[in-house]
Amino acid sequence: MARELLGGAGLYFDELNKLRVLEPGVAQQTAELREECKAFVDKIAEFQKIVGSLIELVDQLAKAAESEKMKAIGARNLLKSIAKQREAQQQQLQALITEKKMQLERYRVEYETLCKIEADQNEFIDQFIFQK
Predict the structure, then answer these.
(1) For every one of its 132 residues, what pLDDT tens digit does the chain have, with 9 covering 90 and above?
(2) Where is the signal peptide, in residue numbers (predicted)?
(3) How far apart are CA 43 and CA 87, in angstroms?
(4) How crowded is residue 83: how many other Cβ atoms within 10 Å of its Cβ?
(5) Where are the domains of the chain?
(6) Beta-strand (E) ranges in 1-126?
(7) 3 state SS of 1
């Protein structure tokens, strides 16, 4: 009867016969909820730790990928510049070949002219020697 009167006033006895403001069932559910919340908070903390390490790993991979990308772009640009240098060098060599061919043609014409002059002079010398 005392329990019923106290229950009507909102006071209850727990399993240790201590006076409580909450019903024993509600107090037990609250304790269970507290334990579940603690476990949930621990799992969330562990999840955040895992996510943090994952984000760090992904950032490292992104930096490595960006570095490799920059190396690839640098290598491609170097290759393009080397190709342009070779093309310019080839054009210079072609111009040099053309110049040397023209010089060879001039020397050939000069040689033929000198041969003709030598032949004329030899003929003149031969005629001069025979006239004496």
Answers:
(1) 555 655 555 666 666 666 566 676 777 888 899 999 999 999 999 999 999 999 999 999 999 999 999 999 999 999 999 999 999 999 999 999 999 999 999 999 999 999 999 999 999 999 989 886
(2) none
(3) 65
(4) 10
(5) 2-131
(6) 12-13, 19-20
(7) coil
Please tell me the distance from the alpha carbon of residue 17 to that of residue 69, in angstroms, as a whole number: 73
Question: How many CB atoms are located within 10 Å of the residue 77 CB?
Answer: 10
One-letter amino acid identity for 6? L
Q: Which two tokens stand for residue 31?
A: 């304790």
- Per the document, the length of the chain is 132
Torsion, Cα of 4, 34, 18, 1 (10° steps): 10
